[in-house]
Amino acid sequence: MENFEHLYEECTALLPEKRKAKAEKLINKNSALLSATAGLMMKRVLGINDDGMLQYNEHGKPFFEHGPFFSISHSRRYSVLAVSENEIGIDIEMHENPRESLINRCFNEEEQVFAKLSTENFLRIWTAKEAVLKFLGTGFSLTPKSFSVLPLDSEHEINGGKIRFFCGKIGEAPITAAFSGNDDNFEIREFLPEDLIY
Length: 198
Known about the structure:
Layout: H1 4-13, H2 17-25, H3 29-46, E1 55-56, E2 62-63, E3 69-75, E4 78-84, E5 88-92, H4 100-106, H5 109-115, H6 119-136, E6 156-158, E7 161-170, E8 173-179, H7 193-197
Antiparallel strand pairs: 1-2, 3-4, 5-8, 6-7, 7-8
Helix pairs in contact: 1-3, 2-3, 5-6
């Protein structure tokens, strides 16, 4: 990214200390910028300008004591933030090729067959799995192979809760949100890093 260093410094200067420290721990400069821009989206959309506004569960998932619910993800050139009045998890991925070891380790037999048909299928399953783990707030302490996300257009009972999926794209990147409740209205707003600074 052109003028990356200047942009990164501008972004991190506006972040609360914990989010700034999280971005600064990342060695890859693009990942650090994406983490910083995710923090700026949280500041712009949710008004998070102080570390004390958030709490964290035992797996490190940030949350507000009284809502709204939110989830963040980033990959390659995109950061995403999902906000809802109900519990939500989101994931975005831009991997080019299905990874056999990941498929075998994290997908059940039906998901493995579906994922091996195409890169798009693989990415749909993987983003849905990650979105569920974020929704539940467990991270990978819950094995992804322990639940199924197929078919993606159905409601699923996972870990005692009812979960539905929203599947879409931002540019060429598949994005999947796992959510509860009845609100199917998703608004996708795009920000450039510069939009979040100025």
